[in-house]
Write a structure and sequence with these properties.
Elements: H1 4-13, H2 20-41, H3 72-76, E1 82-83, E2 86-87
Antiparallel strand pairs: 1-2
Length: 93
Amino acid sequence: MIDDATVRHVARLARLRLSDAEEQVMREELSGILAHIDAIQAMDLDGVEPTTHVVELENVLRADVPRPSLPRDEALREARNTVDGEFAVPRMD
């Protein structure tokens, strides 16, 4: 279990000002998180391959296939400013 001094230290590092009631809630929540971490560390994970996600993901985006783009004059038609057939934007200093 995390003590009050640790909760105050973590809050100070996070630049949080907690009331006494909030410190109590944070102590309980942080203690719960550490208990879960302890439970995971106690598991025998030999032979378990590391994963980045717990379920199989499928790419839902369209295939990235090259295709013709807009003609230059159509792409620049609504541009506020152009220079030599290209978008012109204000200089950032």
